[in-house]
Amino acid sequence: MQIRVYYEDTDVGGVVYHSNYLNFCERARSQLFFDAGRSPILENGHFVAKHIDGSFLKSAYFGDLLNVSTTLIEIKNASLKLNQKVFRSNELLFELVITLAFLDFQGKMTKIPIREKEFFLSLK
Length: 124
Description:
By secondary structure, this protein is α+β, with helices and mostly antiparallel strands. Helices cover about 20% and strands about 40% of the residues. The chain has helices at about 20-35, 115-120, and strands at about 1-5, 40, 45-55, 65-75, 80-90, 90-105. A 6-stranded antiparallel beta sheet has the order 1-4-5-6-3-2. It starts with a strand and ends with a helix. The mean pLDDT is about 95.
């Protein structure tokens, strides 16, 4: 997914503020569903971030055009782990590994539906 860095994404020096890399990755995860004609909010539940391990490697700046890639690392019954990378051209700027848990609407961790498992397996 491509993301343009806007003024609102940066600090006073035009450098992307650190928390916005998480926002960029969140947008890319949502866009995966939208590109497939689906919603990230499912009939029987939704995914929430359980654990995030991020590495800030280089800075992005106002006006940069970034690309966010997403690949599946692992999928279990009620959680999955993704690797997301933010690039400027071929230059890796930020990388995260995120564990997502699937919760029902009462907040209880539950099995990921088969259709969603198949969707995420396509990201491998």
